[in-house]
Design brief:
The complex is a heterodimer of chains A (317) and B (514). By secondary structure, chain A is mostly helical. Chain A has two domains: 63 residues, no CATH class; 221 residues, MetI-like fold (Orthogonal Bundle), CATH 1.10.3720.10. Helix content of chain A is 79%, strand content 0%. In chain A, helix 5 packs across helix 9 and helix 7 packs across helix 9. Chain A starts with a helix and ends with a helix. With 514 residues, chain B is of the alpha+beta class. Among the domains of chain B are: 108 residues, Dipeptide-binding Protein, domain 1 (Alpha-Beta Complex); 207 residues, Dipeptide-binding Protein, Domain 3 (Dipeptide-binding Protein, domain 3), CATH 3.10.105. Chain B has 14 helices and 19 strands. In chain B, the strands form five sheets. In chain B, strands 1, 8, 9, 10, 11, 12, 13, 16 and 17 form a nine-stranded mixed beta sheet that branches. In chain B, strand 6 and strand 7 form a beta hairpin. The longest helix of chain B has 18 residues. Classes of the chains: A mainly alpha (317), B alpha+beta (514). Chains A and B meet through helix 2, helix 3, helix 5, helix 7 and helix 12 of A and strand 10, helix 5 and helix 11 of B. Chain B: Belongs to the bacterial solute-binding protein 5 family. Chain B: Keywords: Signal, Transport. Chain B: InterPro entries: Peptide/Ni-bd, SBP_5, SBP_5_dom, TAT_signal. Chain B: It comes from Streptomonospora salina.
């Protein structure tokens, strides 16, 4: 990739982030109610609400507040929470580790698992293993996360006392030093995202196995194993690697459920809390950081998939 | 790193409440041979994420209240019936017709060893009433305290002067967010260094996650029995799983479903607390159709309270009687229980020319059971010929929306003293006058009741106010709700009869582990 193309990509990423922040700000503003109402809740009185709005600066017009936020952002400051008055950077930094650990552990297991199962099932299309994998992934894909989480907790924590039922009170560090806490949450996440990916890899493998070039390789006497790993796998995994970037969305909604059920204080819970409290700067901060991460992942996935199947470059040669 | 303390708690007379008059019922535990001391208790509450705070004066969530209770104390606190009892205040005297109060403080110490003085009390109240970035609940409670003219009489005697007389001051000082902190409280960050006089000292705090606290050896009441207390944030599902999975000893605010399914579980004690709130609907008495007393009366006669209790609260509430505060001090137990009388309801509607009445009932998912109750009520009203349209609104703005919009709405209240409820919702300029109840005579009678020195006479006056509301007011109270907590069977000394906001609710200095 040339330097110019890289710059172009950066520009696109910046534009995407700007659009995202406008969208999120507008969406949060459009929600009924504001932080003052959220803080007061059932104890709402008009007078108290007016006082709080004035102190939070909510009586300023939205455009002014939005520009203010961008101005702060350019100096590397994500602003402060309307509710707790703490710096948004702190809040985001504090809730990132547990979520990153959950996500990283899931993805680390996801890739080898999906590749192995998908290739094995696709290579023996219609066989016993293939049927078993196809059925299992379909079932897991159909069970809602929270139901799966409840079933696992009921079975493995409350019935046989094998694993802790929640990660109560644990921070990122505890999650790393006490990996037992991670088993159930990661299992739930894995079931959610792996099912789709396995089916993708399986379909890609089955297609590639039926292709002309595979048939030709067989005629040339290439062994089954070599065929699968050298010729079929790259083609089968290319669409899956792009799917992997999209796993992010799926992973996020999964993380949200898992964080609630297992009491892991992470990013997803932070975002939901902030939206519920109409804490606009915090919502903006979280979404901005998550958006940046997502864009980076997408770019990385695209690069990986080009490496696996360098078709575009070939045409140019 | 859990620290297992082996220090024996100095029990002494502490078990008897050291001078405090205990009015609450017994907790249902058999008398222990000897409470053990030491050990760690983990208590789980609904979390507030990054908004949890160790500042005892901000608008608190339940989890904040529980944490603050462990670390800080107030001058007074509530018995189970919402009457005040001393905490830091040993006793008090009043003169000038209820406008000048003197509170004598106990020999209590802050966690840093300093004595709790009258100056600390005045500084705390000044901090509560000072404008701040966060709403401070105590400001309204201190509205009539004239701090400029209040003073420290001696090191441990504080005099509070009021701008208008009330004999309810001790109850006001027991409200949420009224804790006494050292005068120099703002020199430190309470999240890392919280200095109070409570039975536990802060070990660590992380908002949205947990607070760890350790037994304070110098507490005036003899100190806690357990060595360590951890108060953690978790949503309802996780709280239940943690208790069942042995990751917690006390869980707060559980569903009727959880209670039912664990009623026979030998490892779990379900703690049901009656009189913890009211479930109601509010008619706006200042606008049509409910500005006609006959229509209000008809609606109070057509509601089937028993059925609402059975269906919506799964039978856990007691049948309501249209007035707030059953089981609390000043409540008029002689009010006749109102029942269902469809014929009379129809007749009243006809007399009011409202036989084909159509009215919108605002509700939302802002509180569990609101929509169910509204839907069921609409069916009951139809039997009397009235059409009630249930309008489900936005739950996030519900409680501000119903203050001035609409004519009829789902409503509820937690536990508070009856005078506080009247001041908050039932006088003409009440900030949450959800029934639009504006009557000069009622306001005067309420002011007179508060300024009546003789308790019997004062009680009689409060009864009169309740009779007026029972006959003519805008609330249809269909249930007095219970609160459900649960503990591990090994946790003892948890007071059952302690509604939220009372002294023995979420109180961990008296519990022990078997």
């Amino acid at each position: 990739m040339t330097a110019r193309a890289a710059l172009g990509r950066l520009g696109v990423a910046a534009a995407q982030l700007l659009a995202l922040s406008v969208l999120v700000f507008t969406a949060t503003e459009a929600l009924p109610g504001d932080a003052a109402e959220a803080v007061l809740g059932e104890d709402y009185t008009p007078q108290q609400a007016a006082e709080i709005r004035a102190r939070m600066g909510l009586d300023e017009p939205p455009t002014i507040r939005f520009l203010q936020w961008w101005q702060d952002l350019l100096t590397g400051d994500l602003g402060t929470s309307l509710i707790s008055g703490r710096p948004v950077t702190d809040l985001v930094a504090r809730s990132l580790p547990p979520t990153l650990i959950l996500a990283a552990a899931t993805v680390a297991l996801l890739v080898p698992l999906a590749a192995a199962l998908g290739l094995a099932a696709g290579a023996g299309e219609g066989g016993r293993l293939d049927r078993a994998v196809t059925t299992a992934t379909l079932v897991l894909y159909s069970i809602p996360d929270f139901a799966l989480a409840m079933l696992l907790v009921l079975g493995l924590s409350l019935q046989v006392r094998l694993l802790p039922a929640t990660a109560m009170g644990a921070d990122g560090w505890r999650l790393l030093t006490d990996p037992l806490l991670l088993v159930l949450p990661v299992a739930v996440l894995l079931c959610r995202v792996a099912a789709l990916l396995v089916r993708q890899v399986r379909a890609g493998t089955a297609d590639a196995m039926r292709s002309e070039y595979a048939a030709h390789a067989r005629r040339l006497g290439v062994g089954r194993r070599r065929l699968l790993l050298r010729h079929v796998a790259p083609n089968a995994l290319a669409p899956a690697s792009e799917e992997l970037a999209r796993v992010g969305d799926n992973l996020f909604s999964g993380v949200l459920v898992v964080e609630v059920v297992f009491a892991v204080p992470g990013v997803a819970g932070g975002v939901v809390d902030a939206v519920a409290m109409r804490d606009v700067p915090v919502v903006q901060g979280y979404v901005f950081v998550l958006g940046a991460v997502t864009i980076a992942l997408n770019q990385a996935a695209e690069l990986v998939s080009r490496r696996l199947v360098p078709r575009i470059e070939q045409v140019r040669r | 790193m859990p620290i297992e303390t082996t220090r024996r708690a100095a029990l002494g007379l502490g078990a008897l409440g050291a001078g405090a008059v205990l009015l609450g019922g017994c907790s249902g535990d058999p008398a222990p041979e000897r409470p053990r001391s030491g050990g760690r208790v983990r208590a789980l509450f609904a979390g507030g994420g990054a908004n949890e705070s160790m500042d005892p004066h901000v608008q608190p969530l339940f989890i904040d209240q529980a944490r603050h209770k462990a670390l800080y104390e107030k001058l007074t606190q509530f018995n189970a019936d919402m009457s005040p009892r001393g905490q830091l205040a040993e006793d008090w005297t009043v003169d000038e017709g209820g406008a000048r109060w003197r509170f004598r403080l106990r020999a209590a110490r802050f966690h840093d060893g300093r004595t709790v003085t009258a100056d600390d009390v005045l500084a705390s109240y000044a901090r509560i009433t000072a404008p701040a970035d966060t709403p401070r609940n105590g400001r309204t409670l201190l509205a009539r305290v004239d701090l400029g003219n209040s003073r420290a009489v001696e090191e441990r005697t504080v005099e509070l002067r009021l701008t208008s007389p009330t004999y309810e001051l001790p109850a006001l000082l027991a409200g949420t967010g009224m804790h006494i902190v050292p005068a120099d409280f703002d020199d430190r960050d309470p999240a890392t260094d919280a200095v109070g006089s409570g039975a536990f000292t802060l070990a660590s705090f992380e908002a949205g996650r947990s607070m760890r606290a350790e037994r304070f050896g110098d507490h005036w009441d003899g100190g806690a029995r357990i060595g360590e207390l951890e108060i953690l944030s978790a949503e309802s599902e996780a709280r239940g799983n943690a208790l069942l999975g042995g990751q917690g000893e006390y869980i707060h605010d559980m569903s009727a479903t959880f209670a039912r399914s664990n009623e026979d579980n030998p490892d779990v004690t379900v703690v049901r607390t009656p009189n913890s709130g009211m479930a109601a609907m509010a008619m706006k008495t200042d606008r049509a159709p409910f500005d006609d007393p006959r229509v209000r009366k008809a609606f109070r006669l057509l509601v089937d309270r028993e059925r609402l209790v059975d269906v919506v609260s799964a039978g856990t509430a007691r049948v309501g009687n249209d007035v707030f505060g059953s089981g609390y001090r000043y409540f008029d137990d002689d009010l006749p229980q109102r029942g269902r009388d469809l014929d009379r309801a129809r007749r009243l509607l006809r007399e009011a020319g409202a036989q084909d009445l159509e009215v919108a009932l605002d509700t939302s998912e802002a509180a569990p059971g609101f929509v169910d109750a509204a839907t069921l009520f609409a069916e009951q009203a139809a039997e009397a010929g009235a059409t009630v349209d249930v309008r489900v609104g936005n739950q996030d703005t519900y409680f501000s929306d119903i203050l001035d919009q609409g004519v009829f709405a789902s409503y509820r209240s937690g536990s508070m003293p009856i005078p506080n409820h009247l001041a908050l919702r039932m006088v003409s300029d009440a900030p949450q006058n959800v029934t639009g109840w504006k009557r000069a005579g009622f306001d005067e009678a309420f002011a007179r009741a508060q300024a009546t020195a003789d308790e019997q006479e004062r009680t009689r006056r409060y009864h009169e106010l309740q009779q007026e509301l029972h006959d003519d007011g805008g609330l249809i109270v269909w249930g007095y709700t219970e609160w459900i907590n649960a503990t591990a069977a090994s946790l003892r000394g948890v007071e059952r009869d302690a509604p939220p906001n009372t002294a023995d609710w979420a109180r961990f200095d008296r519990v022990w582990l078997e």
